[in-house]
Design goal:
The structure is a single chain. The chain has 155 residues and is mainly α. The protein has a single domain, classed as Up-down Bundle (Ferritin), CATH 1.20.1260. Helices cover 77% and strands 0% of the residues. It contains five helices and no strands. Helix 1 packs antiparallel against helix 2, helix 1 packs across helix 3 and helix 1 runs antiparallel to helix 4.
Length: 155
Amino acid sequence: MKNLVGIDKSKAKKLSEILNQLLADYEVFYQNLRGLHWNIKGREFFELHTKFEELYDDAFIKIDEIAERILTLEGEPLHTYTDYLKTSKIKEAKGVTDGVEGVRIIVKNFSTLITTEREILELASEANDEGTVSLMSDYISETEKTLWMLNSYLK
């Protein structure tokens, strides 16, 4: 049995579940980025304040894209903070004011995100779900480059 976009319903259900994992991770990641943006102090303030804003703007867009992909697959996106915190593999970062510590947290969060994105990519490939494959391929390429840059900052 296939859904509206021609994906096997059981495979679409499994994809929706792992996309909800990614959605929850991105929601917590987004809030971590906001907190870092607001609370960062020190010599790198201007540089990191701007970078963290760039990253949370991007995460905000991805959150909407992921939720809409879940809906396209006929799933229901998570939409409460209770569900996000219960589901997310990313933990809340609270009270961080040091720039280097903030970048380390972001690198760790991105590492979690890219692992889930790769899992989704594999499942989507197996389901012949080109829409999700394309979305995850783009996310992975962006995340790899961002991880390289952030890691270079830490050296």
